[in-house]
Backbone:
């Protein structure tokens, strides 16, 4: 028996690597060589001349069925020759025998190791020079060679119902695990691909997450999380549709944010809005709500007719002599300025007061400022926002005619209205 256990240990050390699983046979067949000993159990030992006088050989075929992880059923059929005692202390000649058993193999520990010892017990039938029943018990050792082949060594004592037939049986052989009928055939792990990315699981660094073969089956970096790898993403730091190369179009105007001067507001002009539809985007249009030509930055131009009106108003706004009080006929004239400002809503007006050179320069300066302020107040009363109005007095410093003549002095006494676009 020591030799058998040593052989089993060497096979374990030299066998290929195996998976850890229970020693559950389920369905298996075994073939073993058995040595039968009717000599040792005799109460009176006969004289033994050699080992062959004591041991005879038999062959054994066994069917195994796993009941659970620690209990197996074994049904061995043994055929061979045995020296059966004819009386106490006397062995007969070798004669053919057959035995059929039903045994249970109990494996209470080490079910997942390469070596798994077990205990056995059961009943059997022995047919030699007669038929008898036997009770048997013993021990054995299973040695896993790989997932389907085992080495099994076993020793057992058999108590026979007939006198002088108790015997010992030593056996060693191999066990082959059959494919269970209720278990699907094994899958070749070289072909399995759980994530379906084209990289077999055994070579896939990320077997449950799809990724390209060039990255060993793992997904490539995707900083913006838009489903497009950074190496293929035209905008790796901003999430966008795959169809747009991974770039966003926040305002949905069909122009990607990276090429859109107005990424947050949709518009027809290179992705920017044009409320007044004058061909200039609102961001560049000084008058985004009023159409105007590009040469005037999108604002309506002051027409010659409007300028003529402003020149007329400048020369015809009148005040009481030496005072800043508007005369009644000036109201209708100033109403024309109000009408212009209501049409040119983006423009502001600078009101400038001027005098002739009659009197002191200081007096004329104060008078020009007051007269400009009077016009400012009138326009404000008629609803023009003060943010669009400003006034200043120039006194006698900016004449447009010769103050030596009456006609020249009349031209110099004026209030000018200059329209301008704010910065």
Residues:
């Amino acid at each position: 028996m020591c030799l058998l256990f040593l052989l089993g240990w060497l096979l374990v050390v030299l066998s290929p690597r195996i998976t850890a699983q229970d020693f559950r046979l389920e369905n298996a067949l075994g073939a073993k060589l058995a040595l039968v000993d009717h000599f040792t159990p005799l109460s009176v030992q006969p004289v033994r001349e050699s080992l062959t006088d004591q041991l005879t050989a038999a062959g054994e075929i066994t069917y195994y069925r796993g009941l659970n992880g620690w209990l197996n059923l074994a049904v061995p059929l043994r055929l061979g020759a045995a020296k059966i005692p004819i009386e106490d202390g006397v062995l007969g000649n070798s004669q053919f025998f057959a035995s059929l058993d039903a045994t249970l193999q109990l494996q209470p520990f080490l079910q997942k190791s390469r070596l798994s010892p077990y205990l056995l017990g059961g009943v059997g039938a022995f047919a030699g020079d007669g038929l008898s029943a036997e009770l048997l018990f013993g021990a054995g050792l299973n040695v896993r060679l790989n997932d389907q082949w085992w080495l099994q060594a076993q020793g057992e004592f058999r108590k026979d119902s007939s006198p002088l037939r108790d015997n010992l049986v030593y056996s060693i052989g191999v066990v082959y695990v059959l494919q269970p009928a209720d278990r699907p055939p094994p899958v070749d792990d070289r072909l399995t691909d759980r994530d379906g990315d084209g990289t077999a699981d055994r070579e896939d660094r990320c077997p449950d997450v799809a990724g390209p073969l060039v990255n060993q089956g793992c997904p490539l970096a995707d900083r913006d999380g838009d489903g497009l790898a950074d190496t293929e993403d035209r905008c790796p730091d901003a999430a966008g549709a795959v169809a747009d190369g991974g770039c966003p179009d926040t305002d949905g105007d069909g122009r990607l944010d990276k090429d859109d001067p107005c990424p947050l507001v949709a518009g027809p002009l290179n992705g920017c809005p044009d409320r007044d539809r004058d061909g200039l985007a609102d961001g560049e249009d000084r008058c985004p709500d009023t159409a105007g030509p590009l040469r005037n930055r999108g604002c309506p131009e002051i027409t010659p007719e409007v300028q003529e009106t402003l020149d007329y108003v400048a020369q015809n706004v009148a005040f009481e002599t030496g005072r800043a009080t508007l005369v009644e006929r000036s109201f209708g004239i100033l109403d024309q300025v109000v009408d212009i400002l209501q049409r040119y809503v983006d423009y502001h007006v600078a009101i400038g007061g001027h005098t002739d050179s009659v009197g002191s320069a200081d007096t004329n300066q104060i008078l020009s400022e007051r007269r400009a302020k009077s016009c400012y107040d009138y326009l404000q009363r008629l609803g023009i926002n003060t943010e669009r109005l400003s006034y200043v007095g120039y006194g006698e410093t900016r004449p447009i005619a010769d103050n030596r003549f009456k006609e020249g002095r009349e031209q110099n006494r004026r209030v000018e209205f200059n329209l301008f676009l704010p910065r």
About this structure: The radius of gyration is 58 Å.
